[in-house]
TrEMBL record:
Domain ApaG: 3-128
Protein name as annotated: ApaG protein
Family matches, as InterPro entries: ApaG-like, ApaG_domain, ApaG_sf
Classification via Gene3D superfamilies: ApaG domain
Pfam family, any one: DUF525
Length: 128
């Protein structure tokens, strides 16, 4: 598990390889990731949007920008956590993802970025 804390917000990521399949005559590798967002700060915060950079060792990078996560904009009070799972497809057995969440601190009303640590996407069969 990969973890990182930014301004009192702890992000933990765990990944899993789901398999390979053909799509449009091209092999794709499916990965899921499970993220836990933990508010270790003294203030309530809300996640408003996300930015992802998906790196594929055999293809060009993909950028994902959007509101919320999985259709939600969770509010976390001090000590609370939010969990969610999602996934991605890449065209090689190796890749990586990184990014950040845009959040707002309800006490200061200031927005800030919370770094999502870089995590690897690797099919187990390709590691030997």
């Amino acid at each position: 598990m990969i973890q990182q804390i930014t301004k009192g917000i702890k992000i933990s990521v765990k990944t899993s390889f789901q398999g390979a399949f053909l799509k449009n005559y091209k092999t794709h590798f499916a990965f899921t990731y499970h993220i836990t967002i933990e508010n270790q700060s003294n203030d309530s915060v809300q996640l408003n949007s996300r930015f992802w950079l998906i790196k594929d060792s055999l293809s060009k990078n993909e950028i994902i920008n959007g509101e919320g996560i999985i259709g939600k904009k969770p509010v976390l009070k001090p000590g609370e956590t939010h969990n969610y799972s999602s996934g991605c497809l890449i065209t090689s057995p190796f890749g990586a993802m990184s990014g950040y969440y845009n959040m707002i601190n309800f006490t200061s009303t200031k927005t800030f970025k919370v770094k999502i640590p870089t995590f690897k996407l690797s099919a187990p069969f390709a590691l030997n």
